[in-house]
Amino acid sequence: MFNIERWQEIFEAISKNKLRTFLTGVSVASGIFILVILLGAGRGIQNGIQNQFAQDATNRISIWPGNTSKEYKGLGIGRETKLKNRDYEIVTQKFEDYIDNKSAIYSVWSGNVVFGKETGTYRVEGVDPNYQFIENASIIEGRFINYSDIDHYEKAAVIGKKVATDLFKKGIKPLGQSINISGMMYKVVGVFTDPGGEREETRVFIPLSTAQKAYSAGDNIRSMAFTMPKETNFNKAVAESKKFTEELGKVLKERHMIAPDDESALFINNSLEQAQNIYKLTDAIQAFFWFVGILTIIAGVVGVGNIMLIVVKERTKEIGIRKALGASPASIIFMILHESVFITLISGFMGLLFGLLLWAGIGPLIESDFFSHPEVDFNIALTTVILLTVAGGFAGFIPAYKAAKIKPIVALRDE
Predict the structure, then answer these.
(1) 3-class secondary structure for the chain?
(2) pLDDT tops 50 at residue 346
(3) For residues 234 and 216, what is the distance between their CA atoms, to the nearest angstrom?
(4) How does pLDDT run across 86-116, given as a tens digit for each residue?
(5) Whose CA is closest to 363, among 354, 373, 353?
(6) What is its subcellular localisation (predicted)?
(7) Does the pLDDT value for residue 414 go beyond 60?
(8) Domain spans of the chain?
(9) pLDDT tens figures, 182-210
(10) CB pairs under 8 A, 24+ apart, for 239-246?
């Protein structure tokens, strides 16, 4: 039940000690403010990392060759591992049940691309049709490489949006145009966009078979890329991908006479395993931010508790008179708790409001590869409010309990 006299007492007590109340409120508000800032920063880190993984399929596994660093079966150190079409065929046949999308890749790292008077140097990659889904590329005009292009060695090119912007000026449509790639003419059959942004859109895809023939690669490939079927359980997906990469490495090392423990001759990248490690790191960062923020709040709450002890000491005689006139211990406790909770909640709400307003103002302006859209969601804000209420009650309970235990005769003799 609303008791106006109780609230008048609270405001009167606060007005008598304005500076003390203000400093106590600042300590609580700063604790909540710091917590909101830290949690928003943690969310920004998580969003940035998730955006990075969105650039390619999250369950991507890539293999590329290196040089041996250990002797094996009489073969020396420094041998270059060369992946072949046959390696790709054996892997895709042997691990068919593990694989969702697949592509062998032949990269031409510094492909000179010319259209009319415009020219640029871009990464040119010979790929299979499934590579679109491995890269998470979206076709915005035309189509991607298809199996007919592979079978007939077609000189077809799919260019990134940034390449199209660089080469085709004055409203010229890229589709159907002929471009010169390192001395050979190709027809543009598609334009793609990529969630990785301009860096990923400065590429040109051509049929793998055409790339090997046009650039005298024979049956060599630069790398392979696969995705695995999606699992509803993340931990199960990670376990399956680890098993696949281990067996895949074993097969390829046996084919190329590489020592089983040679980590330099063949590189296998498992994006799911990377994601698991990074998500664990971001969870640890969030937990640390919560820890620091809560400690800061506790420091403010301790300050509130100390202030309430002083209040009880100053009002000892008043409390004694109340009890002599018949005030119950519960009413004394509630009187002190009301003031404690009120100071804590108001201060905490101010800290919460300033923190949310700060992120709302500067959050959209902060954008980097690993930090994006810092924010604090409603659930976090609600949790913070509940935490404040509990903390305010806890801060005032011990002083309130001490006040309720005061004996009237002792209180009335207090000077």
Answers:
(1) CCCHHHHHHHHHHHHHCHHHHHHHHHHHHHHHHHHHHHHHHHHHHHHHHHHHHCCCCCCEEEEEECECCCCECCECCCCECCEEHHHHHHHHHHCCCCCCEEEEEEEEEEEEEEECCEEEEEEEEEECCCHHHHCCCEEEEECCCCHHHHHCCCCEEEEEHHHHHHHCCCCCCCCCCEEEECCEEEEEEEEEECCCCCCCCCEEEEEHHHHHHHCCCCCEECEEEEECCCCCCHHHHHHHHHHHHHHHHHHHHHHCCCCCCCCCCEEEEEHHHHHHHHHHHHHHHHHHHHHHHHHHHHHHHHHHHHHHHHHHHHCHHHHHHHHHCCCCHHHHHHHHHHHHHHHHHHHHHHHHHHHHHHHHHHHHHCEECCEECCCCCHHHHHHHHHHHHHHHHHHHHHHHHHHHCCCHHHHHCCC
(2) yes
(3) 42
(4) 999 999 999 988 898 999 999 887 789 999 8
(5) 373
(6) Cell membrane
(7) no
(8) 4-52+277-412, 67-99+228-264, 101-226
(9) 889 999 999 999 887 788 899 999 999 99
(10) 240/98, 241/59, 241/61, 241/270, 241/272, 241/273, 242/270, 242/273, 244/61, 244/95, 244/98, 245/61, 245/270, 245/273
Tell me the β-bridge partners of 205.
125, 158
Q: Which residue has the higher pLDDT, 211 or 14?
A: 211
The amino acid occupying position 403 is: A
Tell the burial category of 353 from Cβ atoms under 10 Å away from its Cβ (0-12, 13-18, 19+): middle
Closest CA to 381 of 27, 28, 40: 40
CB within 8 A of 31, min separation 6: which ones? 293, 296, 297, 298, 299, 300, 301, 348, 351
* Of 92, 115, 117, nearest in space to 103 by CA: 92
Q: Scanning the structure block, which residue is given the tokens 């309720």?
A: 404
Are the C-beta atoms of 105 and 221 separated by less than 8 Å?
A: yes
The two three-digit tokens of residue 110, written as one number: 């510094």
- Give me 206's structure tokens: 């051509």
* Lookup result for tokens 């031409």: 108
Contact 304/395 with Cβ under 8 angstroms?
A: yes
Report the C-alpha gap between 128 and 103 in whole angstroms.
Answer: 5
Contact 159, 115 (CB under 8 A): no
pLDDT at 329 over 80: no
Q: What is the pLDDT of residues 301-315, one digit of tens each?
A: 777 677 766 666 666
Angle at CA of residue 243, ends 237 and 244, nearest 5°: 90
